Amino acid sequence: MKIVLDRPRCEGHGLCEEAAPELMHLDDDGELVLVREEIGEADAAAARAAVRVCPVAALRLT
Fold this sequence. Notes:
By secondary structure, the protein is an alpha+beta fold. It has a single domain, classed as Alpha-Beta Plaits (2-Layer Sandwich). It is 24% helix and 19% strand.
């Protein structure tokens, strides 16, 4: 599974970071940084939660 960020759509709300801090974080400029794009089964639930809480649908799983 891979998590994909639509960077122009991201507004830096940070809800995804709260849902999956081991997978992503906001940098000092408020830009989302994906720690890793390939998601293993152990992190699948956190990745799904991050996608689900994004208010602008900037994240998706493939």
